[in-house]
Design brief:
With about 160 residues, this protein is of the alpha+beta class. It contains five helices and seven strands.
Length: about 160
């Protein structure tokens, strides 16, 4: 799907969405001064800072990083297949769609067992989630993992307030 501007079929614009609710469990990492622009089909977010710099909230890594100096530059970057796979999960979205796993409004793809918890990167570990539920789960998981040493064995995980 590396054709110019085809990447726009892989995003969910943030306009009109319940972004405040969906991002509630990520506010420990993403300050409210950043404006959500869109999210990909796996629930990762793209934000703009006040000066127009573009940031990526990666639900797999639990990271929030600058990826582009502007939305215009990002649009050009997303015409490259490797960036579509990195920021849009285009390769995985294609596999899901080919195998009949389709999304409805308010849904995203997600990992049944998060890779950070040992889940495998395979189709059988992907399912359709309600966006609010998946955002909450992943935000809570990554918040609890902050500060743990590498190689730490997780024995207890709590979801909910």
């Amino acid at each position: 799907m590396a054709n110019a501007d085809q990447w726009q079929k892989l995003i969910i614009p943030a306009v009109g969405l319940e972004t405040k609710r969906w991002l509630a469990e990520w506010r420990w990492l993403v300050p409210e001064v950043f404006s959500p622009l869109w999210l990909n089909c796996f629930g990762d977010w793209v934000f703009a800072s006040r000066d127009g710099e573009i940031y990526f909230l990666d639900l797999l890594e639990g990271s929030f990083k600058s990826i582009s100096p502007s939305n215009q530059v990002l649009s050009g970057q997303l015409n490259r297949e490797e960036n579509q796979n990195r920021w849009l999960m285009a390769d995985w979205v294609g596999i899901c769609r080919e195998r009949g796993l389709l999304l409805s409004n308010g849904q995203c793809y997600g990992w049944k067992v998060a890779p950070v918890l040992g889940g495998k990167f395979e189709f059988d570990n992907i399912q359709v989630f309600d966006l609010l539920v998946y955002e909450c789960i992943m935000g809570q998981i990554h918040r609890q993992l902050q500060g743990l040493p590498e190689g730490y064995v997780i024995t207890v995980l709590r979801l909910g307030k």
